[in-house]
Amino acid sequence: MNDIKKLEPKFEEFEVRNLILFILIAFSWTWLFYLPSILSPTGGGRTSTGTIELHILILESIGNLGPLVGAVSLTLINEKRKGIKQLWNRFWNFHIKKKWLIVIFFLLPFLSGIAFLTAISIEGVIPELIWLSEPWLLIFWFILLFTFAGGLAEEFGWRGYALDRLQAKYNALYSSIVLGVIWTFWHLPFWFVPGSSHQNSSFLWFLVFVIFLSIFYTWIYNNTEGNLLASTIFHAMSNLAIIIIFPLGQTSNGILYYTLIIIIFAVLIMIIFNPKTLKHNL
Question: Three-class SS of residue 64?
């Protein structure tokens, strides 16, 4: 436990300048690499089945690294190699209690499963679950979502850099809300890519969803003493749950039900845990 505590980040100052620089780097990097998809009338080669041309897929994958690039570059500039080593050690840290591993791996699939069952019960249509016949796909998609398509690409930035500095001045709940807003607007280019799934969804809904989901992430992060591996796995499972395990996008209102469930559980977290820290009082 003492080793874990040593890895928990402590910041005495709010670091407004570094936060602003981090946001500028993360946003600029991501938006720049998404420009080819945005400017292309076909979304850079997206077909009616959602297939994306390889060069566009590579560009967008690189673009997703914006938060990671921002965190690593500013840490290197301000804290040198020592800071990079500390940042890495907080990721390469397998000291996660079993109860939190259960939460990290199974909470969001469980909640998305409730939303999925609700949707198919009301709508009467059951989308195909490909992984039931090809379970190896879960491993493939988890690795993809753990690295370039979410987890690793983002968590070094959102939780490993921005959240730490926000919590140096604000409580955990307020920090979660502020970071949720930042995190949402980082996704903004996705709404301008022709043919993308985001085009037909509400940005306002997404804002509300991400803000409440951000509370989950802070809760996980703070209760694992700033463990970046924990938040990275949680990020991957968050995407895996609603894209692959229970494809809520293939239902009419599954995402809506899921959002309502996320809001309810986020409120429960705030009630059971201390909103100032989102950690257990014991």
Answer: coil
Q: pTM for the full model? A: 0.90
Q: How far apart are CA 141 and CA 148, in angstroms?
A: 11
pLDDT tens digits, 227-265: 999 999 999 999 999 999 999 988 989 999 999 999 999
At residue 224, the 3 state secondary structure works out as coil
As a residue count, the chain comes to 282
Alpha helices in 124-202 (DSSP H): 136-146, 151-157, 164-167, 172-186
Q: Say how far apart CA 210 and CA 185 lie, in whole Å.
A: 10
Q: Is 11 helix (H, G, I), strand (E, B) or coil?
A: coil
DSSP class of residue 131 equals G
Q: Spell out the domain ranges in the chain.
A: 2-272
For residues 189 and 199, give the distance between their C-alpha atoms in angstroms, rounded to a whole number.
10
